Amino acid sequence: MSSILRRSTGFARVASHSLNAASRTSLRTPRLLRTTAAAWSTQTPRYYSADKKPPKPSDKEAGDSADKPQVQSTHSPGPAEADAQKTSSQDDDGRFPLPEGWVYLSEEQIELVEDMTKSGPFKLPEQEMHALRNVRRTGVPRILLEVIEKKQTGTFGIPDVGKVIKGINTLAWHLAKVNSEQENNKSSSRPSRSYQESSSNKSDKKPADENSQEKEQPQDAKQSPKSKEKGFKSNSPPDPFGGNNPLKGNDWLTTAIATAVAYYLYTSISGESGREITWQELQKNFLDKGLVEKMVVVGHKVVVELNREATQSMYPDTAATRSGFNYYFSIASVEAFERRLEDAQNELGIPSSDRIPVSFAAESNVMNLLLAFGPTVLLVGLLVYASRRGPGGGGSNGIFGFSKSKAKRFSHETAIKVKFSDVAGMDEAKQEIMEFVSFLKKPERFQRLGAKIPRGAILAGPPGTGKTLLAKATAGESGVPFFSVSGSEFVEMFVGVGASRVRDLFATARKNAPCIVFIDEIDAIGRSRSEGQKFGGNDEREATLNQILTEMDGFNTNEQIVVLAGTNRVDILDRALMRPGRFDRHINIDAPTMAGRQDIFKVYLKKIVTNEDIEYLSGRLATLTPGFAGADIANCVNEAALIAARGNAATVTLLHFEQAIERVVGGLERKSLVLDPVEKKTVAYHEAGHAICGWYFRYADPLLKVSIIPRGKGLGYAQYLPGDAYLMSQNQLMDRMAMTLGGRISEELHFDTVTTGASDDFSKVTRMATLMVTQWGMSEKVGPLHFQNDENKIHKPFSETTGQIIDGEVKRIVEDAYRQCKDLLMEKKKEIGIIAEELLKKEVIVRDDMVRLLGPRPFDDRDDFSKYFGEDAKNSPTTPTDPPLPSPATFQQLNGKDTRRWL
Ligand SMILES: Nc1ncnc2c1ncn2[C@@H]1O[C@H](COP(=O)(O)OP(=O)(O)OP(=O)(O)O)[C@@H](O)[C@H]1O
After folding, report:
1. Is the Cβ–Cβ distance between 688 and 672 less than 8 Å?
2. Closest CA to 637 of 615, 659, 670
3. What is the DSSP letter of 653?
4. For 412-467, how does the pLDDT look when each residue is reduced to its tens digit (9 = 90+)?
5. 714 and 615 in a common domain
6. Are residues 321 and 241 part of one domain?
7. What is the CATH number of the domain that holds 541?
8. Which of 468, 601, 603 should be mutated for ligand 1, with most atoms under 8 A from CB?
9. Which of 54, 175, 770, 805 lies at a CB distance of 3.0 to 4.6 Å from 8, suitable for a disulfide?
10. CB of 464 closer than 6 A to ligand 1?
C-alpha cells in the first residue's frame, strides 16, 4: 500500500527535481523556486507517516521515521501478485475506476512518459521508475494526457509546463486516495500480502498474530496521531500535504505558481540556454565523429546543431540528445571561425558537397526587443522616476509638478514673527502699508463706506533696503498667511509653465484668503512688453505677465487678498501692471537717511553684547555709513561681532565696529602686499595731494583719514564723509572733481614721471563731467538738455554735432577742475611734502594729525561731522591718541564704492 504513495513521492520528486533544476539554472528567482520546492518535498514525508504503523508518542524511533523520507521499495508486483492484491473496485486488468476527468494512457503514451523520465528535467531515480507502471492502472488526469499528446506532436510550449505541474499535483492527490482505499482493503483481507508492502524480509517475517492484531485494531488507531489531530477519517483521502497543501482549493495559486516556474522549467526543458563548449571539445567529441549537422552563427556565438539520433547512440546520457538543447561556443570574428572550420574539415577530408552548412541568424528576439524598445522603456522609466522625485511623489519638485507654484507659505504660527517694530526707518512706507493691515484685519471699516481697498503695492528701491522685510512685517502684523515667491521662479524653459504657476499661486491664495502674496523681483516677469520686443520678445514671460494681469483683475473687491511686489527696477515694469486696480500703490523704499540708519543700527545693536552708549554709537556709525542699506548695516554689525569674537573680546567695542565698516567698504587689508620704497613714496604723495585738496577746498567733503596701507584693490586711500547730500551745487562738483585729480597733479609736481595710479580718478571725473553736461544742464554750450544714456550703447541719444559739443564741454570742465587743483597744489607744495612724509612714517594719519601739521581747516565742518568727529567728540579710534588703525573706508579716493547715490 505504501508503494502507491511512494509513487506519488516519485511524482512529487519530479516536480521538486524540476523545480530544483530550475532553481539551479536560473539565478533570478531562487527564493520562489526554493519555497515552492520546499512545499512539495518537505510536506510529503509527513503524509507518508499516516500509512505507516501508527507511531506511539513514546516511540521515538517511530516518530523519527515519520519525519524521514521512506525507503523506497524496489519490488515490482508480478501478475500473480497483482491478482492477489486486486481489490473489489479494480477491473479485470487490475485498473482502478477512473475519477471524472481522468483517462488511461496508451502503451505508447506510457512509453513516452517513461522516455521523458529517463533523462532530462523530469528524470526519475532508477528505483522509482517502477512507480510509473501503476499509472497504467490508476490513469492520469486529462490535463497530463493533453501535455503528453502535445509532446508527441512537438507542440509542447511554456504554458504546458504549468499544466504538467498541475497534473502531477492532481495525480499525487488521487494516488493518495487510492492508497487510502487500499489500506482499508488491506486491513480487511490480511494476512494476504499486499503488493504495495515493502519487500523487506523484516515485514515478511512478521508473525501472523502480529498481523492479526493489526487487523483487529480499530481503523482510527491506524492513523498517525497527526492524522488524528487533523481529523482524517480512514475512508476519506488523506491529505498528502498533511493538511498543508498549498495548492488545495487555490486554483489561482496553482496557476500563479505554475506560471511563475513555467518559464524557468521551459528554459531547462527546451534547453534554450544550452551549454558552452570550447572549440577543442567540439572538434574532439562531435566534429571528428561526424555528429555536427549544422552551425548557426548568432552574433559572436555559434550554435552547434547535432544529429540527435547519432549523438544519442554515441552518448546516450548527454543532454545534447534532448530536443532543443544545443551546445555553443564563442568566436572572435566570423572570418576566423570560418577559416578554422574549413581547416578542420580539410583535415578530416570531408568533400565539399558534405561540408557542414553554416547559417547566420539574428540575435535572439529578446535582444531585438530590448534594442527596439529599450530606449523607449528607459525614457519612460526616467520620466516616471522624475515625476516621483518630488516629495510625496509627484510634488511640485517632480517633473509633472512643474505647473505648481513654488511659493513658500509662512503662517502666523510658524515663520512670520516679524513686526513693524523690527523694520527701522522708512516710516512713510510703513504708514502706507499699514492700511493693508487694517484692511485685512477689519475689512468692514472700509467696505462700510464703499471704499475699495488697493489690490496691491509695489515696493521699489535699491537692493537690501528692506522691501521683503516690510512685506513680511505686514503679514506678521495682520496675522494672515503669507505666500512668498520670486519672479524668477515663474520662469521655466517650457512655454505656459509660468502662466500655470501664476494660476496655481492665485488659486492657493483664494483658498487661504485673507492672505498676502509677495512676489519678489517682479521685474523678472513684469518687464515692459514693448521693451522686450526690441530684442525679439519672450513669449513665455509675456504669457506669465498677462496671467498676472488677468488674475489681479479677477479679484472681486471683497476678496481679502493683498498682492505685494518687490523690485529694484521699477522703471522697466510694464505700465499695465502699475495701473490702478492692479498694483495701485507705489511705495518707494530708498537707502535710509542718517536718522534711518541710526534706527537700523539700534535694532541690530540690541542683539549683540556691547557696553558702548547705544545712542552715541549708533549716531557715529550712521555718520560713517552714508549710502548704506539696511542689509549693509545688519552685515556690518554682525561683522563687528565676528571681529570681536575672533579677538576673544568680552564685548563688541567702537573699534570693532569701525574695523567692520572699513572692511565692508574698502575690502580686506592686504598685509601680504609689500610695495617697494619708490612705489610707496608715490602712493604717499598721491594720497597727500588728495588730502591737501580736501583740506583747502571750501566745498570738499570733510576729511577723516588718509592711509597708504593697501586694502581691497587700492594701494592707498583718503577717506571723506560726504554726508547725506541730496543736492549738489556746481561749486561742490567742481571742488570734488579738482580734489579727485589731486593725486595725479601731486605726482606731476613731485616726480619726473607720472604713474597709472590715477586711472580710477579719471574715470570718476569724466563721469561727473559728462553728467554735468548731458543731464544736469551745467554747460552753457549744450544748454538745459537731458540726454538719457542708452545702457546698451547701441545708439547715442543726440546728433553727431551735439556729440562733438558734449565731448568738448566735458573736456573743458575736466580741464577747469585740473587747473583749479594744480593752482592749489602748486601753492601748497610744501604742505603736500609734510603730509606725505608723515604718511610714510605712520602709514595712516587722521584728522587730528592734519590739524596738528597744517593748523585748523579754514572752513566750518557740517554739524553731524563736528558732533561725532570734531573737537568735542568722544575719544575714538580715529583720534591720534589711538594706535594707527586701518580705519573706515573712503567714499571717494578709495577705489571701493562711492556711496553717493547720484554718482
Ligand atoms: N529697515 C530695515 N530695518 C531692519 N532691517 C533691515 C531693514 N532693511 C533691511 N534690513 C535687513 O536687511 C535684510 C535684507 O532686507 P530685504 O530682503 O528686505 O531687502 P530687499 O529690499 O527685499 O532686497 P532685494 O531688493 O535685494 O530683494 C533684512 O533681512 C534685514 O535684516
Report:
1. no
2. 659
3. -
4. 555 567 788 888 888 888 888 888 888 777 878 877 888 777 788 889 988 889 88
5. no
6. no
7. 3.40.50.300
8. 468
9. 175
10. yes
- Domain boundary among the residues 329, 361, 393 is at 361
Decide which of 245 and 622 is more confident: 622
Residue ending a domain, among 588, 616, 643, is 588
Domain range for 214 is 2-264
**Do 598 and 691 sit in the same domain of this protein?**
no
Does residue 605's CB lie within 6 angstroms of at least one atom of ligand 1?
no
How far is the centre of ligand 1, averaged over its atoms, from the C-alpha of 467 (Å)? Answer: 6
Residues 222, 99, single domain; the answer is yes
* Atom 24 in ligand 1: residue holding the nearest Cα: 463
DSSP for 69-120 reads: PPPPP-----HHHHHHH--TTS-TTSPPPPPTTEEPPPHHHHHHHHHHHHSS
Residue nearest to atom 12 of ligand 1 (CA): 631
* Shortest-distance Cα residue to atom 17 of ligand 1: 468
Look up the pTM and report it: 0.53
Ligand 1 pocket check for 832: Cβ under 6 Å:
no
Residue 557 belongs to some domain of the structure: yes
Distance from chain centroid for Cα 771 = 51
Shared domain for 38 and 68, answered yes or no, is: yes
- Which CATH number belongs to the domain containing residue 328 in this structure? 3.40.1690.20
Instruction: Report, as an integer, the average pLDDT of 242-249.
Output: 40
Is the same domain home to 203 and 244? yes
For residue 634, the CA-to-ligand 1 centroid distance in Å is 9
Q: What is the ipTM of this complex?
A: 0.97
| pLDDT class of 181 with cuts at 50, 70, 90 | low
465 lines ligand 1 (CB under 6 A): yes
Residue 307 lies in a domain: yes
Q: Which has the higher per-residue pLDDT, 517 or 792?
A: 517
- Return the percentage of the chain with pLDDT > 70, whole number: 62
Specify whether 495 is located in the same domain as 609.
Answer: no
Cβ 467 under 6 angstroms from ligand 1: yes
Q: Is 240 in the pocket of ligand 1 (CB under 6 A)?
A: no
Which residues participate in catalysis according to the annotation? 687
Instruction: Please report whether residue 901 resides in a domain.
Output: no
Q: Determine the distance from the C-alpha atom of residue 354 to the mean position of all C-alpha atoms in its chain, rounded to a whole number.
A: 64
Distance 415 CA to ligand 1 centre (A): 16
Of 419, 430, 469, 567, best ligand 1 pocket probe by most atoms within 8 Å of the beta carbon: 469
The residue whose CA has the least distance to atom 26 of ligand 1 is 463
The CATH number for 646's domain is: 1.10.8.60
The H helix count followed by the E strand count for the chain is: 37, 16
| pLDDT beyond 60 at 127 | no
Backbone conformation region of residue 723, classed left if phi is above 0, alpha if psi is from -120 to 50, else beta: left
What is the number of domains present in the chain?
A: 5
Give, in order, the Cα–Cα distances in Å from 723 to each of 126, 291, 615, 728: 111, 106, 19, 11
> Is 894 contained in some domain?
no
Same domain, 61 and 185: yes
Report CA torsion sign: 74, 79, 85, 91: positive
Give yes or no for residue 487 CB within 6 A of ligand 1. no
Q: Is residue 276 within 8 Å of 328, Cβ to Cβ?
A: yes
